[in-house]
Amino acid sequence: MSNRILVVGLGRFGTALALGLAERGSEVLAVDRLMGPVEAVKDAVTHAVELDSTDPVALNSVEAGRCRVAVVAIGEAFEMAVLSVAALKEIGVPRILARARNPVQARILRAVGADETIEVETEIGRRIAESLTSG
């Protein structure tokens, strides 16, 4: 399978992730339901598309199922994140990571099909603590 990675949701986290992946040579498919964020990354990633990530038909139209991993980076609209994970699972994306704001959201996202969850603020806090205390 290719190094194609889908990033769903182009807020601060999703945009930083998509751009970082592209800088490291990954084929990045970046999607958001709003055109503004799509326009902001379109020249830096392989493909940037405005679409409804909760719709399996829309996801299939951009061949999202060919991605080796999808990251649902939606932070504010939890219902959209849950429905996006379910749609990605339905179309057969082999690995799905999803952003959670707290442990309850993480549990729900795993229950609907996320293979892994990311609590961004918690992870960054731990990494900063580690860097401040490691010589």
SSE topology string:
EHEHEHEHEHEH
Average pLDDT rating: 95
The global form is globular
CATH topology: Rossmann fold
Number of strands: 6
Helix content: 40-55%
Percent strand: 15-25%
Number of helices: 6
Low-confidence stretches: none
Structural class: alpha/beta
Radius of gyration: 15 Å
N→C terminal distance = 40 Å
CATH superfamily: NAD(P)-binding Rossmann-like Domain
- Biggest sheet overview: 6 strands, parallel
CATH architecture: 3-Layer(aba) Sandwich
Query: Please, how many domains?
Result: 1
Q: Write down the CATH class.
A: Alpha Beta
Strand adjacency order, main sheet: 3-2-1-4-5-6
What would you say this structure looks like, in words?
- There is one protein chain.
- This protein is globular.
- With 135 residues, it is an alpha/beta fold.
- It is built from six helices and six strands; from the N terminus they run βαβαβαβαβαβα.
- The chain has helices at 12-23, 35-41, 56-61, 78-90, 103-111, 120-133; strands spanning 4-8, 27-32, 47-50, 69-72, 96-99, 116-118.
- The chain has one domain (4-133): Rossmann fold (3-Layer(aba) Sandwich).
- The model has no long low-confidence stretch (mean pLDDT 95).
- It has a six-stranded parallel beta sheet with strand order 3-2-1-4-5-6, sandwiched between helices.
